[in-house]
Amino acid sequence: MIKIFYPPFQEPTWDLNGAVANDVQMNLVIILVSSSFGYVGNGVYCTFVGVCNTNRGGCHPLATCIENTAITGTYRECRCPSGYTGSGEGPNGCLQTAGLTCDNNPCRHGTCLPSGQSFRCVCSPGYLGTLCDQEEIDVCFSSPCENGGTCVRTANSFRCICPAPYEGPTCAERGGSCGGHIVGTNGTIQFPEAGTAYDHMMSCAWVITVPPGKVINITFDRFDLEHGGNCEFDFLQINDGPNAGSRVIDRFCGEVMQSKSLVSTHNHVYLWFQSDKTVAHTGFFLRWTAVEPFCGGLLNTSEYGSVNSPGYPGKYPVNRTCEWMVRVPFGKRIQFHFATLQIESHPNCSYDYLKVYDGPANTDPVIGLYCTTVTPAPLTTSGHEARVLFHSDESVQDFGFHITYAAQPSKPHLLFFFGYNSWVQGCGGIFTTPSGTIRSPNFPDVYENNLNCEWLIRIHPDNRLMLTFKEFSLEHHQNCSFDYLEVFTFRSIQTDNSLVQGGFRIEYKTICGGVYSELTGMLSSPYYPESYPAHAQCIYDIRLEPGYLVNVTFHFMEIEEHQDCRYDFLEVRDGESEDSPLIGQLCGINTPENIISTYNFLWMKFETDGSVQNRGFYAQYEAIEIGCGGVLTDPVGQLSSPRHPDRYPHSMTCSWYLKAPTNHIIRLTFTSFELEHDSSCQYDYILVQDLDGTEIGKFCGNRKPPALTSMDSSIFVKFVTDASVARDGFTANYEFLDASQACGGTFYRESGVIKSPGYPNRYPHNAHCIWILKGQNHRQITLNITSFELEEHQNCRYDYLEIRNGEYESSPLAGKYCGTDILKAITSHSNVMRLEFKTDNSMSSRGFEIYFDSSATGCGARLTSPRGSIVSPNYPQSYPYSADCEWLIQTSAGSLISISIVDVDIEEHQQCLYDYLQGKPTTEYFAKSPILPIVRLVSDHSVSREGFRLEWRILGCGSDIHNKASGTISSPNYPNGYPFETACYWHISYPPGNQVELTIDAMDMEGDFECGYDYLRVYGGEDAQAPRLLNLCTHITSPQLVVSHGNHMFIEFNSDHSISRRGFSATFRRKTNGCGGWFKASESMIMSPNYPNPYTFNDDCDWLIEVDPSHLINLEFYEFDLPEAVNDTKGYVAVSFFF
Predict the structure, then answer these.
(1) Which one in 57, 138, 197, 589 has a CA-CA gap of 20 to 30 Å to 550?
(2) Which of UniProt's keywords are assigned here (predicted)?
């Protein structure tokens, strides 16, 4: 009798399986050993009426019983009402929440722990529930495991650990039983019991079931049945499915399955054992386990074969995906024949399908897609590889497919030629030489239609291959769907039946060496320890991260001997390319000493000729960590002092080599900087150099260096510390810039060239570039303009180049240029110049090319702008020793100048005997002459400081000039353009009896009809209330002359806020004849002496009025008051016209 125990809330089910041709008789008695909620009856027959309909489902009287059959058929939940807490089960399942504390020890069989305003119970073993008032059911209490089995509690049930030879859920079955249904993920079957022989005329069946989605792996530890040729006596038959009608995997007898395995295609297997009436053996012992399904694989063993769906000829399983890689010998194609094809049908093959790719990858073209029961025609690939994919979904199953395949020759027939530098005129071939040439068929004539050619190049596994396409001409198509050449590990050329072209010619050669970036590695000559080949060239490129050096240790060296290593040799260079410094050229049999690189790169070339071949060399490299320095080739990056932001170590040197691609420059920007300070930077410092060794800059202290820009594609950065003071160090970012598009930069060098972006092509719109040029101390910079073409405008309002004498936007203006008008050479005041280039969004021109040179010595300058700044040479770095610089401000006579010192740091001395700044920098000065020495810097040969920076501006212009025989007046900043919104007044006077004669020598001002914007006005008196003699603007081509009527003249110059021109320049002198004068102007006014006061007696005045040729003079009297003449004895005015 078999006892079957089921815990509460479990619904019992049974699978009854009998052996083939046997009847099964079972008497079943069900006894409920523990009541289950929801059932009513007599214990033998029960009826389910609902869990909550019997005894309230075991819930507390106040609780609500809620059924949830979605979890199990008898699941229910007991919920306490509001104001109560607990599990809701049993008489104590709901307790009022008010006043729940541990004072009254509410936990029946446990420990009470306070929890906020409530509590929680920690139950003793064997109890559960909110108040530990429910006894935990022990499913092992009734000892369900028989025959000495051990009961182990699980989450919702139990399991039995059975002693030998018992088995089964409760250890009730003795091992060796005949048949049964076994469900689980693993197990064993032994038949008969160990040490016995099976009986005659036995027929036993076992069914093994594992979870859906799994298959069964069966391994035979022991197999001993009666032997028979066709297993017609005693046998074990295994079916791939749940019953005897499933596909037969095979029938086994004898000892054929001893220590062997098989795998099902479904989650069921059916095992049928049968013995006859004669010989008996010891039977079998097998282990089984559930495994993930697997199907497909690589089929490349011969020129023919077959592919079957999983489980064929039975139905394939659901949710299965299988992939086969089919490969036949190189140079042939694959032809598939479909013997059987039965796959669930669908118009788009969206459910179950068979797919064939024309190649080994799932990116190759699909040449067949099937989901049908109709047998298709044979299918042929274009090459020697194919990918076959089968997929089934979770629903309908069918009998699948059986496909055979065979290799077919390519068309046309392959021609094979071997030998050094050989080539193939035919279609396809196999190459085994170190180098060679591949041509399309009939090259250089056109190839044929419908070709399918494959070439295979086989080289030594340690070598790599380089293909060079010398000529190439195939039919064009956007996706290369017609004629094409593919390069793979194994691929081909294929042509269609339409257009043909000239084909291709490819040269190949083997390459050795490689790029090494690991911290350690091995280096050897080709084929080592065998002899290296002739005509080899191997490049070993070791590239470590910055902060490491390369250390190469040679363990073996045997290269053809020669005094100069002329034939076979190993060349070692200290860098990343063949252009790097040569360390040595090695040959012979002597093992070299270790080689250590300067940076994190090391470049080696092994080259052989065609004569002697030796074993070569074997070496090992390793990285040496130094913490700083290296070769930097990434387009952007950062370098920093060791340990930054902590203090850097003493007595160290770090070297960085920044190498950009050709036609690029490098911009280096310091983001933090704090080194030991010294005026000459001889202790701790940063040194930046161009590739030719030109010093770009040397920096120390805590003043952050400006952004630096190289003139070519490489720079060196060197960081040096001594044994004393240490600071926090530095960080700097770098970037590589396209030299043709570079815009701005700071240059510390003696000479170079500056070009507008894109030069000599047109510069871009909305560009804004600033170049700072810095020469050495005591030097001046000269700009040589070789080409200049910007958008033209009279005030350079749109596109322009602005040049200043100094580093700042407020530095003295040297000039603002546009169009094509610019000085050919411009020299700076000191060792610093600023060039600012701006463009708008309209017109564009070729731009400019400017060469600069700072080899000339000197400092100081003549300043002509209305405002600006003056800085000491090299400011804010230390000014040079033994300097004597003088700056002169040139302005209009009588201009008011304001000067203020912004920064000053000069060697101190009580009488300023060593270094000093001389001038009147803190007062306003009224200029009496157009050129005024204003600032002078003198330094000696010892201490040097940062120097000074001062700003100056002209507060106004004009002056009061009295009794000066002659002089000059001009608009501010003449001839470099007057400033906007400026008003200047000059009052020129002489003693009575004299006149003022003014000659306007040159004038270029904004013009309009009424001279209402910018103008020059001349009055014949002490101020603007006097009669106006002249009102001029625009441009004059010849001098204009005007004479005052008395001994005073007032001159007014005015500019508005917009257009600015060069201005004017005029000279004045005393005229002693008292009245009259020579007027040479287009218009003016004359009047009697002392007008409007009475003239004096005995005056005799002559006025000569002259205008340009081809013009007439219109003379108009505004006021006339003379007494009538009597016998010509009174005053009169006589007018004479002449040509």
Answers:
(1) 589
(2) Disulfide bond, EGF-like domain, Repeat
Residue 310 CA to residue 294 CA, distance in Å, equals 9
Q: How far is CA 1041 from CA 370, 1068, 1107, in A?
A: 107, 10, 10
Q: Predicted confidence band at 673 (pLDDT cuts at 50, 70, 90)?
A: very high
Indicate the pTM of the whole model: 0.40
Concatenating the DSSP letter of every residue in 83-116 gives TEES--BSTTS-EESTT--STT---TTEEEEEET
End-to-end CA distance of the chain: 157
* Residue 458, CA distances (Å) to 35, 419, 437 in order: 79, 13, 14
Task: Report whether 384 contacts 329 (CB < 8 A).
Answer: yes
DSSP symbol at 316: P
- Pair type for strands 1048-1054 and 983-989: antiparallel
CA–CA–CA angle 965, 967, 969 (5° rounding): 145
CB atoms within 10 A of CB 235: 20
For 177-214, how does the pLDDT look when each residue is reduced to its tens digit (9 = 90+)?
788 999 989 999 999 988 899 999 999 999 999 998 88
Q: Are 95 and 84 in contact (CB under 8 A)?
A: yes
Put residue 1034 in one of left, alpha, beta given phi > 0 → left and psi -120 to 50 → alpha.
left
Q: How many other CB atoms are found less than 10 A from the CB of residue 899?
A: 19
Q: What single DSSP character describes residue 936? A: E
Q: Cβ neighbours of residue 265 under 8 Å, at least 6 residues apart?
A: 215, 240, 293, 295, 310, 311, 314, 316, 317, 320
The CA distance from 443 to 426, in Å, is 10
- Rounding to the nearest 10 degrees, give the CA dihedral for residues 751, 752, 756, 761: 140
Nearest to 1078 by CA among 1101, 1097, 1048: 1101
- Bond prior to 165 in cis (omega within 30° of 0): yes
- Give the integer Cα–Cα distance in Å for 684 and 706: 18
- 1014-1040 in b/e form (b: 16+ CB < 10 A) is bbbbbbbbeeeebebbbbbbeebeeeb
254: left (phi over 0), alpha (psi -120 to 50) or beta: left
Give the Cα separation of 128 and 87 in Å (integer).
10
Distances, alpha carbon 378 to alpha carbons 127, 197, 338, 406, 1035, in Å: 73, 53, 7, 11, 96
Q: Looking at residue 173, what is its pLDDT?
A: 65
Closest by Cα among 635, 636, 516 to 576? 516
Helix/strand/coil percent split, the chain, to 5: 0, 45, 55
Looking at the DSSP assignment, which residues form a beta bridge with residue 180? Answer: 206
Q: In degrees rounded to 5, what are phi and psi of residue 305? A: 170, -165
What tokens were used for 379? 């299918």
- Give tens-digit pLDDT for 93-126: 887 766 667 777 788 888 887 766 677 788 887 7
What is the DSSP code string of 470-533? EEEE----TT--SSEE--SSS-EEE--SS----EEEEEEEEEEEEEE-SSEEEEE-TTTTSPPP
The Cα 8–Cα 863 span in angstroms is 107
DSSP state of 176: T
Q: Are 747 and 688 in contact (CB under 8 A)?
A: no
Helix (H, G, I), strand (E, B) or coil at 10: coil
The mean pLDDT value of the chain amounts to 82
Based on DSSP, count helices (H) and strands (E) in the chain, helices before strands.
Answer: 0, 84
Residue 914 has pLDDT above 50, yes or no: yes
Q: Assess whether pLDDT exceeds 80 at residue 844.
A: yes
User: Checking DSSP bridges between strand 768-774 and strand 745-748, what pairing results, if any?
Assistant: parallel
Cα radius of gyration rounded to whole Å, the chain? 54
